[in-house]
Structures are given as C-alpha cells and as structure tokens.
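Let's practice the habit of predicting before peeking. Look at the sequence and jot down your guess about where helices and strands might fall. Then scroll down.
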Amino acid sequence: MSPTTTTRVSSKGQIVLPAALRERDGIRPGQTFRIERLEEGEYRLVRAEEAPNTGLVDWLRACPDSTWFTPVPSEETDTLKSFLDHHHEE
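Done guessing? Here is the structure:
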C-alpha cells in the first residue's frame, strides 16, 4: 500500500510534492514529470526519463582544467563540421 498525503493547488496552478516524498524518491528541482488524466478528478504523476547525457555539459564546464572544452555554437551539421575541422588542424 502506498502512503497518501494531501497538498493544495496554488493560485498559479502549481502543486507541491511534500518534502518527504521528494527525499524518499530522489526528486530534484528541474526534473520533468508527465501528468496523465485517468478520469475526472483522478490523475497520475509520472517522472519522465532523463536524457542519457543530462548534466554532461555542466559537468564538463565544472572541470578544473576547462581550457580544453569549447561549447559548439550551433547544432547545425555544417557548423559542427567546420568546428571539428578547425580543431583537428591544431
């Protein structure tokens, strides 16, 4: 049997997950959830899966020797190819 708790909807339409539930399930700020409507008045909150590289760029930028990491200015294929070609020449 799962524990139940009560919360309120704020004037902005937000629902707070109680701290005990967040701590128990390792819920962190910024995580994404899906809300599924089961029927009128019944909903299911499901944590969305994070992308496998979530947080990787932040981790790389936090590296003590960050001079080797250069963010790519665009995700367009041409820009990426130009960026890689330039850095392979060095």
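How did you do? The beta strands are 33-39, 42-47.
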